[in-house]
Amino acid sequence: MDLSFKQIFHPSDLSPASNIALAHAVKFSLLTNAKLDILHVAESVTSDDFPKVRKLLEKWQLLPENSTPQDLKKMGLFVKKVGIQGANSLSRISNYISTKELDMIVLSTNQKKGFTRWLDKSISEPIARESKTLTLFIPGECQGFVSYDTGKVKLHNIIIPIAKDPDPQYSINCATQLALTCKLDKVCFTLVHVGENCPSVNTEERQGWKWQTIVSKGNLVKEIIGKADENQGDLIIMTTKGHDGFLDMFRGSHTEQVLRNAKCPVLAVPNVPWIIED
């Protein structure tokens, strides 16, 4: 069963890294027929400040040159651009998220400055609904798995760390649905367990899909990053423990530590039954 989204959210700071994240947000909106909200917070916001979604789709040859907003609607993509004036972008983004029923958040991270800019305790008010949101993080120095130039998906190797807690089956299900949604004919899923007593999981067998399990010892984060590098990982999918709010889900967690060091995108999957089972 494919992923089924209704609403995707992308906070943009208009940086080159944010443009790469935008490409991923637009691609998933197209693949799932989801509405896309793009939010930008600045002291002064005008319509010219926002990333040009139509220009991106023209670049992908999905829209004709000099396309119109009507052309965008005809292809079934509905984009809402929200500009909020103010200095505290993080609190405003968090407040905006709290008013929406989101299925996915796509954002870029600046690893040099540290992931803490997204984890400031002053903006992490408890929002239970947000902790049920899939979140795709694109490290600022990587190109991700959706080409900004063509819109094509390159996902050959998906890394899935597994442990008894949190339940890894959520990540397994998500990886399966992601592969189906992206119509991946050939993909390798690498399950990485650090320690003893590797948990058993259910996987879906399809022609062209390969599942392999690696069990290792050592520092959990270093082993995950190392195995992702060794296997040329295009994406890491991790189950996160549920907490009071969206940002609390990552602060001080193994997910946050992986985010700080990963060379590829990281998809954080909440350990709640957000996936509709067959």
Radius of gyration, taken over Cα atoms and rounded to an integer in Å: 18 Å
Count of helical regions: 7
Low-confidence stretches: 113-131, 243-250
Distance between the termini: 7 Å
For the record, the CATH class is: Alpha Beta
Q: What is the CATH third-level topology name?
A: Rossmann fold
Q: How would you sum up the global shape?
A: globular
- Structural class by secondary-structure content: alpha/beta
Largest sheet: 10 strands, mixed
Report mean pLDDT, rounded to a whole number: 82
Strand order of the largest sheet: 3-2-1-4-5-10-9-6-7-8
How do the helices and strands follow one another from N- to C-terminus?
EHEHHEHEEEHEEHEHE
User: Which percent range describes the beta-strand content?
Assistant: 15-25%
Number of strands: 10
Protein name: Universal stress protein
Pfam families: Usp
Organism: Uabimicrobium amorphum
Domain UspA: 5-133, 205-270
Describe this structure as you would to a colleague:
The protein starts with 6 loop residues before the first strand and ends in an 8-residue tail after the last strand. It has a single domain, classed as Rossmann fold (3-Layer(aba) Sandwich). It is globular, with a radius of gyration of 18 Å. About 10% of the residues have low confidence. The chain is an alpha/beta fold and 278 residues long. 26% of the residues lie in helices and 23% in strands. α6 packs across α7. The protein is built from 7 helices and 10 strands. The protein has a 10-stranded mixed beta sheet, with helices on both faces. This is Universal stress protein. Belongs to the universal stress protein A family. It comes from Uabimicrobium amorphum. Pfam families: Usp.
